[in-house]
Amino acid sequence: MVPRVPAWAVAAVMLLTGSMNTLSKKAMFETCAPSITGHTRANCPSGQEPFNKPWTQNLAMFLGESMLLFVVLYMQRQQYPASDRRPSRPPPYFFAPPAALDLLGTGFSGIGMNFISASVWQMMRGSIVVFTAILSVLLLGRTMHSSKIFAICCTVLGLTLVGTSSVLDTKSSSSSHGGLASLVGIGFTILGQLCGATQMITEERLLKSRRCPSSLVVGMEGIWGIASMLVVLAAMSWVPGDDNGSYENAKDSLYKLETSATILTLMITYFLSISVFNLCGMTVARRLSSVHRTMLDSLRTMLVWIAQLSFYYIFESSRYGTPWSAHSWLQLAGFLICVVGTLLYNDVITLPFMRAHDVDESSRALIMPADNDESDASVVVNESASDADREMNSY
User: Fold this and answer.
1) Quick one: signal sequence residues (predicted)?
2) Does the pTM of the predicted model rise above 0.85?
């Protein structure tokens, strides 16, 4: 997008901001802040409680995504100075269905992050590859050859090992509620990835033939997401729950942001990192190969894990970190198997028994980031970045 910037520099910024997405999101869940009702919870000081606000974080994510509309406007003015020459675009309502799925996916994933460590959460997001592959066969009529099926099986095996390590690991601060809580967190995270995969398929069906740039897709989904979240947060404030009397108390969220400099800083970091991550994703999609993008995604997961280990052992407070335990070896093995599965699926590596005609460019494009950031004449999303941290190449 900015040709004079070396591709490696853009990739490095994307790696850094992508990791910051996950770490700042998790840190908010672990940070105590004053409660609007003076309620105390979860080993916090008197009158404080953790910022367990996954849907409020969704609003920040959509705000970050919407910033790409400024990029769209700038690029249109540079490329099409005369307004009558500008290309036609899909009507705004076309972006509502994928935005709704984005909202559900990131919301469920955010709930799941409450119960598991950031590194496990990041690894479990790899399940989106499995769901996208299955849905592309069922809904788009694509063919999955034996090499793809083997790669998917490797990914499922790796995810199973990662999930098992989290359930068995009661030493981690994120697993302090026990194996059942970890299982709930993994379940919500996987449910979020199912929504994310459905979102990718929906974007493929609705927008592929319309040559819609990824920056416009992400930006418009951000606008729809903001509008939807304002309604959702208002409704959740009226639904009974344990967040100061509501399912998620919007007034309490604003109060915590106002009274806690740490929460406010983390929220701004989350917002900015999403904006920059999506912007870099468009450049990476055009200028780097699938090998580089696969490695970037793996490095992002490793960076998140290393950061959490560092927080635990270097700083006095272990609230933001994760210790190394005997079960961490199982998590590491699962992660490496997931990486192998991803490399196999995207034909970065091949096995001797895999035939050449097993390579399927169309199915690979749907899975690998080209990002649907969430989308372009190549699409990137994320954590999406999707939260999208979402990644897809479908356009």
Assistant:
1) 1-24
2) no
